[in-house]
């Protein structure tokens, strides 16, 4: 397989001694589909046989054939992904660093990147950031374009994505007065575990797209602010890295995409439980990933080198953006009967993430799960799916009628995510019966724009908003936030005139259609 006369001596064989360093010239000789070597984190790997098995397709690997692929690899892979997926004999040895040309680069800073660095230097001072919308506005300007496209994109026309936020505008407060609100306490318990507010950090993929420390930013912030982090299946950091970064007794949940190979799922679940994960959130709204066109369009603009073009598309369209590239393993055959199998492999509480109607919430209750997340995947799956907070209102009403349940309910907990930008959004969901609300994108934007200090500031903003708004509402504890404090009579009305949220709409980047290449606009 290793073509050419300058292949390495004594590499990859079973029982071989320490592998000698390889020169960059040796690696460069293996830059074709027939023999493809890449460098990742200073080590050389033969990925020839893995090309067609790579979830993201062979094209992106061939783009870096014979070169260092670390920059492309890091944001979308856990550090151990390559060593886990390649057999030991494909680990060829370290790169000889003395052969790396430090004076040249295959990836010099582009004019676009120089402009982005200039925008980073022009960010507002962190003290000038007043709300979660502000982080999003800055992130949109300073994040790499592909990273912004992945984080911000949603399904089809992005109607549900915007509706998730707009739905909260159809819920109005009915404040109570003349109550002693000198002291207010917005702490609560989530699945029996203490939380400083009715918020958890929900699972979001590819954290390193926004910052080199990726999800570790969220782990550290969760510990500092007394929150619970939900670890994603598709994290950029490895699962063990994230768990190891947690403080002693810090509570973490795990979000699971179910693999078509159930032995892999079983291994992941059992390992999570062994590492002390307290609850398993099974994603049930993604039998296939939705079309996220902002993300997809990024792939159309990249010109591939000649070797990539020769490889062809194969049977899978590789130009579908980061989301499709990392998700081909997800099992579309997941069904209700599988809950019994999950109970056979774990004692962790099971929560279904992505329930979108009261009928399925009722089924989940009857089958004995610990709770459900009323969610449409951040508007990234089925466009025109309703918002989680709208579904919450009907779930509470129907489960009260059908099973006599009152919410919040310790034995069957309701969670909501999607569209949350203010503590008032969380308070509205709690008033309607939610135990807690998941926040995802805003925290990604916070650390993507300002690093760890950004997410620290974002969570402090939420704490401050809880204190102020609970006082103004007349609620001294979470238990005092009751249904009578909100008017949700218009929650199911999808066409209703309300004042525009200028901060949100100002951040929203409109979808673009197909464009002419390299032609100046007529405008």
Description of the molecule:
This protein is of the alpha/beta class and 523 residues long. Helix content is 36%, strand content 11%. It contains 20 helices and 15 strands. Helix 18 links the parallel strand 13 (413-417) and strand 14 (436-439). The protein is globular.
The chain-level mean pLDDT equals: 88
Shape: globular
Counting H and I runs of at least 4 residues, what is the number of helices? 20
- Helix percentage range: 25-40%
Largest sheet: 8 strands, parallel, barrel
Instruction: Pick out the low-confidence regions.
Output: 1-16, 300-319
Main sheet: strand order: 7-8-9-10-11-12-13-14
The assigned structural class equals: alpha/beta
Please give a handful of descriptors for the protein shown:
single chain, 523 residues, alpha/beta, three-stranded antiparallel β-sheet, 20 helices, 15 strands, globular, disordered N terminus
Which SSEs are present, and which pair or pack?
Blueprint: H1 24-28, E1 37-40, E2 43-46, H2 58-63, H3 70-73, H4 81-85, E3 91-94, H5 111-121, H6 132-142, H7 145-152, H8 159-166, E4 172-173, E5 188-190, E6 193-195, E7 199-201, H9 216-225, E8 228-231, H10 239-245, E9 252-256, H11 262-274, E10 280-283, H12 293-300, H13 306-311, H14 321-325, H15 338-345, E11 350-355, H16 358-366, E12 371-374, H17 388-403, E13 413-417, H18 423-432, E14 436-439, H19 441-473, E15 486-487, H20 502-507
Parallel strand pairs: 7-8, 7-14, 8-9, 9-10, 10-11, 11-12, 12-13, 13-14
Antiparallel strand pairs: 1-2, 2-3, 4-15, 5-6
Helix pairs in contact: 6-19, 7-12, 9-19, 16-17
């Amino acid at each position: 397989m290793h073509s050419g006369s300058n292949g390495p001596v004594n590499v990859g064989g079973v029982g071989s001694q320490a592998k000698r360093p390889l020169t960059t010239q040796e690696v460069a000789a293996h830059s074709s589909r027939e023999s493809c070597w890449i460098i990742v984190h200073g080590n050389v790997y033969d990925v020839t046989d893995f090309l067609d098995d790579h979830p993201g397709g062979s094209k992106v690997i061939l783009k870096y054939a014979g070169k260092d692929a670390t920059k492309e690899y890091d944001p979308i892979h856990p550090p151990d992904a390559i060593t886990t997926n390649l057999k030991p004999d494909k680990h060829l040895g370290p790169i000889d660093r003395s052969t790396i040309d430090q004076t040249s680069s295959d990836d010099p800073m582009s004019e676009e990147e120089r402009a982005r660095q200039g925008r980073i230097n022009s960010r507002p001072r962190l003290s000038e950031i007043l709300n979660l919308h502000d982080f999003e506005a800055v992130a949109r300007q300073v994040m790499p374009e592909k990273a912004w496209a992945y984080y911000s994109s949603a399904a089809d026309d992005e109607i549900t994505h915007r509706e998730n936020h707009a739905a909260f505008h159809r819920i109005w407060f009915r404040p109570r007065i003349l109550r002693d609100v000198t002291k207010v306490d917005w702490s609560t318990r989530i699945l029996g575990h203490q939380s400083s507010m009715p918020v958890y950090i929900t699972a979001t993929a590819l954290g390193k797209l926004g910052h080199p420390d990726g999800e570790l930013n969220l782990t550290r912030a969760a510990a500092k602010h007394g929150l619970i982090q939900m670890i994603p299946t598709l994290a950029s950091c490895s699962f063990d890295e994230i768990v190891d970064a947690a403080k002693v007794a810090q509570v973490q949940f795990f979000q699971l995409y179910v693999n078509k190979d159930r032995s892999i799922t079983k291994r992941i679940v059992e390992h999570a439980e062994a590492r002390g994960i307290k609850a398993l959130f099974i994603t049930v709204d993604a039998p296939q990933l939705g079309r996220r066109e902002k993300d997809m369009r990024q792939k159309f603009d990249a010109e591939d080198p000649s070797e990539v073009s020769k490889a062809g598309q194969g049977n899978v369209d590789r130009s579908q953006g980061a989301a499709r590239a990392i998700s081909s393993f997800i099992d579309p055959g997941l069904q209700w009967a599988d809950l019994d199998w999950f109970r056979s492999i774990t004692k962790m509480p099971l929560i279904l993430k992505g329930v979108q109607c009261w009928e399925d919430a009722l089924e989940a209750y009857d089958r004995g799960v610990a709770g459900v997340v009323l969610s449409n995947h951040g508007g990234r799956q089925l466009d025109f799916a309703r918002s989680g907070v709208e579904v919450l209102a009907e779930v509470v009403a129907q489960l009260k009628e059908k099973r006599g349940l009152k919410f919040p309910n310790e034995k069957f907990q309701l969670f909501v995510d999607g569209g949350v930008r203010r503590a008032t959004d969380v308070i509205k969901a709690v008033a309607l019966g939610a135990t807690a609300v998941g926040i995802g994108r805003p925290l990604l934007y916070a650390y993507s724009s300002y690093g760890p200090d950004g997410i620290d500031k974002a969570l402090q903003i939420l704490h401050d908003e809880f204190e102020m708004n609970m006082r103004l509402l007349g609620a001294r504890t979470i238990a005092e936030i009751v249904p009578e404090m909100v008017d949700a009579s218009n929650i199911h009305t999808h066409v209703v005139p309300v004042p525009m949220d200028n901060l949100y709409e100002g951040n929203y980047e409109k979808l673009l259609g197909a464009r002419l290449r390299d032609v100046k606009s007529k405008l």
